[in-house]
Specification:
There is one protein chain. The protein is of the alpha+beta class. It has two domains: 152 residues, Jelly Rolls; 79 residues, Arc Repressor Mutant, subunit A (Orthogonal Bundle). The protein is built from eight helices and eleven strands. It has a four-stranded antiparallel β-sheet with strand order 1-8-3-6. Strands 2-7-4-5 form a four-stranded antiparallel β-sheet. Strands 9-11-10 form a three-stranded antiparallel β-sheet. The mean pLDDT is 84.
Length: 240
């Protein structure tokens, strides 16, 4: 039985790593080597994986659940950077530079992650420079996400930011027909992502409903008038 459990664990680790963009193109033998380094960790909802400024122990891959990576402003306001979910990696940047975590990470729900230890992965990078290049590619993808987040947060008000967020989930080119999708996060998390609080987000959703731009039923959001919503966005941005 212990051997069976060990085999099941190895398969689960391999599947998680194989689904991660960071390890795309890595051979089966290399995946097995990386899996042998991985340390599984289980987090309860609200539990911190690490806090900003702590010495880096390595980077992480999410097996199941969701991790909120965020920073605190000087005034004590939490600004979410991103929510990482199954198959995504984070904290790779902490392997270089000062070696401290530049942000904090907290579980949004019961979560399983894999810690890829710092010393061991750095030794692998020295032996396999092509793997280091793949890691740089994954880190650049994270940078693009952060730049897009900053762009969104410069939009001048919550109505504009929410309209922009909704329109990003509508197929392009925009059509007159409705678009329905499932909200894959809590409204509190969404509020933090667009730089506001839950109460303001709820009021803005309510205003969009009254204007017949959207409907909301539980986790189901329907953008009833994508073209009309884009017109609101353009008006708020001063575009014609």
């Amino acid at each position: 039985m212990p051997q069976d459990l060990s085999a099941i664990r190895a398969v689960a680790l391999g599947n998680t790593l194989r689904s991660c963009q960071l390890f795309s193109g890595v051979s089966l033998a290399e995946l097995e080597q990386i899996a042998s380094l991985a340390i599984p960790k289980q987090l309860e909802k609200g539990e911190y994986l690490f806090r900003e400024g702590e010495p880096s122990r390595g980077f992480y891959v999410v097996q199941a659940g969701a991790v909120n990576v965020h920073r605190m402003s000087p005034t004590g306001k939490e600004q979410m950077i991103w929510v990482f979910r199954a198959g995504q990696s984070f904290a790779e940047a902490s392997l270089t530079g000062s070696g401290d975590y530049p942000a904090s990470a907290r579980a949004l729900e019961p979560t399983h992650v894999l810690l890829i230890p710092k010393a061991e992965i750095l030794a692998l990078l020295r032996r396999r420079p092509e793997f280091a290049l793949r890691m740089l590619g994954a880190m650049s993808q994270h940078l693009r996400v952060l730049v897009a987040l900053l762009d969104d947060l410069t939009l001048k008000n919550v109505e504009t930011r929410l309209a922009n967020w909704l329109l990003k989930r509508c197929p392009r080119p925009l059509r007159a027909h409705a678009v329905t999708f499932q909200l894959d996060r809590t409204k509190r998390v969404l509020a933090a992502e667009i730089g506001t609080v839950s109460e303001t987000l709820s009021r803005t959703f309510g205003d969009f409903r009254r204007r017949k731009l959207i409907t909301v039923s539980g986790k189901t959001i329907t953008v009833r008038d994508p073209i009309g919503l884009e017109a609101v966005l353009r008006k708020n941005l001063g575009e014609t």
